[in-house]
Amino acid sequence: MKICIVGSSGHYVYALRGIKEDPDAKIVGISPGCEGENIEKLFSQVNEMGFAPEVYSNPIRMFEELKPDIAVINTFFYKNSKLAIEAMKRGIHVYVEKPVALSIEELEELKSVWKQTKVKLSSMLGLRYTPHFWTAYKLIKENKIGEIRLLHAQKSYKLGNRPDFYKQRRTYGGTIPWVGIHAIDWIYWLSGKKFKLVFARHSRLYNNDHGELETTAFCSFLMEDEILATVNIDYLRPATAPTHDDDRVRIVGTKGILEVLNGKVYLLNDTTKEVTEVSLEKPPIVFLDFLNEVRGTEKCLVSSEDSFYVTLASLLARQSADEGKVIEF
Amino acid sequence: MKICIVGSSGHYVYALRGIKEDPDAKIVGISPGCEGENIEKLFSQVNEMGFAPEVYSNPIRMFEELKPDIAVINTFFYKNSKLAIEAMKRGIHVYVEKPVALSIEELEELKSVWKQTKVKLSSMLGLRYTPHFWTAYKLIKENKIGEIRLLHAQKSYKLGNRPDFYKQRRTYGGTIPWVGIHAIDWIYWLSGKKFKLVFARHSRLYNNDHGELETTAFCSFLMEDEILATVNIDYLRPATAPTHDDDRVRIVGTKGILEVLNGKVYLLNDTTKEVTEVSLEKPPIVFLDFLNEVRGTEKCLVSSEDSFYVTLASLLARQSADEGKVIEF
């Protein structure tokens, strides 16, 4: 299984994590995805794993010369979709950064090429593979909280100093698609329901000279079966906080309430009586299941359809926030 | 200071709490506010406090015969506003259940009578007087989190079996005005900012035969200065949970993050470095400050204007949820 990695501006470490667990996976080439993208850290990490990849300056030439089975694509965000399309057109399976596109038009083109080429595609919605979110998912499947009725998800990040491409909407895509998409994914994945409409807002105030980057946002969703969901997103986590992020979700069902908080899972229902910390389940290994899907032996936890749908939801939420109006799906 | 209490379907215990601390306050009369309202428990509580109030069946007659200084009004929700108007027209100050009206028209009438009669009015937004919310308020005033940018508030209640008047919108008013109003109040009071627009939804599904009562809801607000806020409301707290409610608020500022959770207050900023539990401050005593406002010696924490404004916000949120559209303030 030959793998090429394009860029290092996103979550390529997910791919490394899966590759480490797969004796037949081999990183054969790496390349920046954009002019000015520094891939030195990627190179040294791949080297430490014992691979000696060829280093290209042009990812398309890399695809054509090395003919990999899989391209891992995580460059400056505005190029991910275009490069995924170039890879798919050459019959290469793609593991691409989320959101998989920065506009509805790009998303439609990506889907259309995916349908024509019939390659496999997954995206870096890697938080599904954390023990806490995976355990929450299992508990819901085991019907511990009954029918889901209300969800609230939170993403809170330190801002720090971000690369220049974060400072323009055209190259960054927006905070709802970049950060909020995880929270939107939890809501969709954990509830198993589709979105009906969204109302969202965002604000660029107090973004510490990050140009067009939005510092805060909310999304509110009506879902199938009158399920209600809200999301809070911010880049205002204090610089001195012990962790980079503060990911949370609270899920209210007809029989109980489930929460993910501080990497732990808490359950309250008529059986537990009090809020009870639940032992974490071992999740699947990120990217390893995609390698196996390419082999045809397993289904990847993050399907192509989910990758497209969650990207769509984040782009419609961004549109709602930009236009100040409710958007129907 | 002569006080009459009308009804016992709301939070008259707030009034009892203040009266206990005030040697000059005296409960002189009690009455149901509606036909069929049982006030036996109120009677015995007032008795235990050492008062021997006259018991009326008609609150208007009680107002006219006993001429109290203050009427405490908390009957079936649809009658609170009407009875407050009757009291005010007789020059009686009113301490009334929230929401202070169940429709915009009623609210306008109440405000208009209040302006004409110049009596004092406050409402049972009593959670402001809890040590945890009061401490959060003080910390914000002390600038511990900088400029507020994003808020999320939660109300989660056990449903149990509610009286029949909860089962009709006409008599109950809706879950956003009845339960959500507290969360809306925290957002308004803690941020000190006005609302610009609201988008809300609610659902009656799984309300356990409670007719028109909404089981779940969210509200999302754009406020002044692009401050964003969301609210989650539910009646799905498991019956066996250790407490009736699970009140929360999380406030994200430019310099820190503050949370109220489980009756405690947590602060994270560049000084605390980690999420730190804050010692609780002693709040003012609920209703006692209203007694003093009537005397002219103090300002009540819940002003007339706040009571009207927070009721308006909850009614516009309900309208948004009913009509499925964004409502501007």
Q: Can you give the mean pLDDT of chain A?
A: 98
The CATH fourth-level homologous superfamily of the largest domain in chain A: Dihydrodipicolinate Reductase, domain 2
Q: How far apart are the termini of chain A? A: 38 Å
The low-confidence parts of chain A are none
Please name the two chains that share the biggest interface, counting residues whose Cβ lies under 8 Å from a Cβ on the partner chain. A-B, 48 and 48 residues
Residue share in β-strands of chain A: 15-25%
CATH class of the largest domain in chain A: Alpha Beta
Q: Helix- and strand-based class of chain A?
A: alpha/beta
**What is the overall silhouette of chain A?**
globular
Features:
Rossmann fold, Dihydrodipicolinate Reductase, domain 2, 2 domains, nine-stranded mixed β-sheet, six-stranded parallel β-sheet, 10 helices, 15 strands, globular
Description:
The structure is a homodimer of 329-residue chains. By secondary structure, chain A is of the alpha/beta class. Chain A has 2 domains: 2-124, Rossmann fold; 127-286 and 312-328, Dihydrodipicolinate Reductase, domain 2 (2-Layer Sandwich). Chain A is 34% helix and 24% strand. Chain A is built from 10 helices and 15 strands. Chain A has helices spanning 12-20, 40-48, 59-66, 77-89, 104-117, 131-141, 169-172, 175-191, 288-295, 304-323; strands at 2-6, 26-31, 54-55, 70-73, 93-96, 121-123, 148-156, 195-203, 216-223, 228-234, 248-253, 256-261, 264-269, 276-277, 327-328. In chain A, the strands form 2 sheets. Chain A has a 9-stranded mixed beta sheet. In chain A, strands 3-2-1-4-5-6 form a 6-stranded parallel beta sheet, sandwiched between helices. In chain A, helix 4 links the parallel strand 4 (70-73) and strand 5 (93-96). The first copy, chain A, is globular, with a radius of gyration of 20 Å. The two termini of chain A are 38 Å apart.
